[in-house]
Each structure stands twice: as structure tokens, then as C-alpha cells.
């Protein structure tokens, strides 16, 4: 089944909403997103919904193959990006690059 939700750490919310972070790198548990589908996005910490994203592509990529170009799309330096990934997924090699575009904001209460 096509996943319809995605979570992000809330420290990335502002960059996503500003269009400064246009990809995410996930492990194999999240490789099932489908290009063209729209997912509801919430914070990992509190489950607060903050936007919808259209999935544009999902591609396997190795940790060692990450470049400045990927980091730029995360609004980070490559060193920062690698540190973040190692903190979330210690020792990981196989990642999945998910690119997305903002579909619109959800109403707040
Ligand atoms: C909350 C949750 O379930 N998982 C993740 C996993 C990753 N990420 C971000 O994706 C990029 C590359 O990994 C970096 O910007 C990460 O911080 C995230 O926000 N949330």
C-alpha cells in the first residue's frame, strides 16, 4: 500500500516550509513512497501536521555517494548532512533519496 504520511524532526519544519529543504534521505523502511502521491507531513516529536508534500522521486543512494549537491538540497553542508544521517541511522550505507515539492499548508487550530 502507498504510504500517505511522513514525519520529520521539527527542527527541519521551517526549511521545508521555506522550500529550502527539498529532499530527505531515509532507510529502507521508507523506500515505499510513490512518485506522484501526496503525503501528509507531521513532526516526529509531537505528531503535529504542518504540510503536504508531493513525492517526486525515490531513488536508492549509498551514504558514500552523497555529494555537496545533495547537501545543498538539504540546506546543509555535506559534513553536517553526514553527521545528521549518522546520528539517525548509525552505520547506514543504503539510503533512499526522496525528493518532494510542497503542496500547501494545513490550517492551524
Ligand atoms: C522523523 C523520522 O521519522 N525520520 C527522519 C529521518 C530523516 N530526517 C531528515 O532527513 C534528512 C536526511 O536523513 C535529514 O535532513 C534528516 O534530518 C528527518 O527529519 N526525520
UniProtKB/TrEMBL annotation:
Residues forming the catalytic site: 21 (proton acceptor), 24 (nucleophile), 74 (proton donor)
Enzyme Commission no:
3.5.1.135
Keyword Transcription regulation assigned: no
Q: Which InterPro entries match?
A: AC4CH, ASCH_domain, PUA-like_sf
Q: Which residues form the ASCH domain?
A: 6-104
Provide the Gene Ontology terms for cellular component: cytosol
The catalytic activity, as recorded, is: N(4)-acetylcytosine + H2O = cytosine + acetate + H(+); N(4)-acetylcytidine + H2O = cytidine + acetate + H(+); N(4)-acetyl-2'-deoxycytidine + H2O = 2'-deoxycytidine + acetate + H(+)
What GO molecular function annotation could you give as one example from this UniProt entry? hydrolase activity, acting on carbon-nitrogen (but not peptide) bonds, in linear amidines
Q: Among its keywords, does the record have Hydrolase?
A: yes
> Entry's Gene3D superfamilies?
Hypothetical protein
UniProtKB keywords: Hydrolase
**Function, in words:** Catalyzes the hydrolysis of N(4)-acetylcytidine (ac4C).
Q: Which family does it belong to?
A: Belongs to the N(4)-acetylcytidine amidohydrolase family.
Q: What is this protein called?
A: N(4)-acetylcytidine amidohydrolase
Native species:
Marinomonas profundi
Amino acid at each position: 500500500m502507498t504510504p500517505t504520511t511522513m514525519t520529520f524532526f521539527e527542527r527541519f519544519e521551517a526549511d521545508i516550509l521555506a522550500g529550502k529543504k527539498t529532499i530527505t534521505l531515509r532507510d529502507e523502511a521508507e523506500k515505499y513512497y510513490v512518485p506522484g502521491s501526496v503525503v501528509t507531513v507531521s513532526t516526529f516529536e509531537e505528531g503535529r501536521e504542518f504540510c503536504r508534500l508531493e513525492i517526486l522521486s525515490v531513488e536508492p543512494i549509498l551514504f558514500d555517494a552523497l555529494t555537496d549537491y545533495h547537501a545543498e538540497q538539504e540546506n546543509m553542508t555535506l559534513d553536517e548532512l553526514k553527521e545528521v544521517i549518522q546520528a539517525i541511522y548509525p552505520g547506514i550505507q543504503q539510503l533512499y533519496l526522496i525528493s518532494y515539492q510542497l503542496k500547501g499548508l494545513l490550517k492551524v487550530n
